[in-house]
Amino acid sequence: MSATSGVTLPMTTERVRRRVDRLPDEGEGLPLHGIHVVEVAQGVAGPFCGRFLAALGASVIKIERPPWGDWSRKAGPFLPGNNRSECSALYLYNNMGKKSVLVDWETESGMEELVSLVSSADVFIEDWDRTYREEFHLPTDMFTALNPDLIEVCVTAFGLTGPYSLWKSTPIVQLALGGFLYLTGNPSEEPLMLPGYQPDYLAGLNAHNAVQIALWERARSGRGQFLEVSMMETLAGLHQFTFEMQTYSGVVRNRNGLQWNKVGPFAFYGITTLPCDDGYVCFGLSTEDQWERLCAMLGREDLLSDPDYDTGLKRSQNAEELDRMIVDWMKGK
Questions:
Q1: Does the pLDDT value for residue 124 go beyond 50?
Q2: Residue (of 144, 136, 154, 155) closest to 115 by Cα position
């Protein structure tokens, strides 16, 4: 990846192409070799999408606006003794294998350069939300109309339409509105946040998957398309059983700490993590056969006929007592 921090002058399209062409093509033999990607997205979600495409052999040109470039350049940790704008771990991780140049697309000449580059690209990755598009007059068909073969993917927090589309966001806001704070942590304590930029990474992975499917569709139909990926919808799609339980059974999942849901037909003891002498053991029991084998392992076959534990629901509701039995058994192991 080429350094860009020392470049402060706007680059003409010809200079951009000359600079990119001087860099080696390392994608030969990989599935996406020959696919040309232009990326203006910054931060985590869009660049993470581009990272996957580059890893699969695509030629990815990352375009950053002067003078500072992608905001993640300023996010630590940093490698000591180096130019901080060139050694952010976050920036380097999400931009591996890309070719990087500076173009200020918010100027008229810069937008002309961007349009020229995108007009010959296969994929265009951006993160322009509704507010930004309205401010700079960027309709969703602006680039696909000029290049019908183009696959443009827009990765934003809340999409380009709907009641939240004008909102700004952060990972904790995404996790809260996406329902994951509500489900994470112990029931008697405050909700817990997942570490780092999890919503962004998940949306970036989703965007990559969408681009791959669109490339397959273009090979079949000969048409590009505009793709819209939101972090909100990505998180909503990751709720295993949450919607199904409420829709079909009227059961609302709750925060249960290390235990699985304790009410309704989905309740079952065994999705839990317990301490042992040298760490922790995660149990994943989901069938009666596995319950029988656990009882045999504990030397407690009497539990099989105990009315307090004869169903998954009862075992889940008496999880604390079962936890104590297992922890006692694991002492010294």
A1: yes
A2: 144
Name the token pair of 126: 């951006």
User: What rounded mean pLDDT belongs to the chain?
Assistant: 86
Q: Where are the domains of the chain?
A: 13-236, 256-330
111 touches 10 (CB < 8 A): no
Check if CATH label 3.90.1150.10 holds for domain 256-330.
no
Fold of domain 13-236: Rossmann fold (3.40.50)
* pTM across the whole model: 0.81
Rounded alpha-carbon distances, angstroms, from residue 148 to 13, 59, 223, 284, 309: 21, 20, 6, 49, 62
Burial (0-12, 13-18, 19+ Cβ within 10 Å), 152: buried
Q: Report the C-alpha gap between 35 and 159 in whole angstroms.
A: 26
Q: Give backbone dihedrals phi and psi of 150, rounded to 5 degrees, phi first.
A: -75, 140
d(CA 168, CA 166): 7
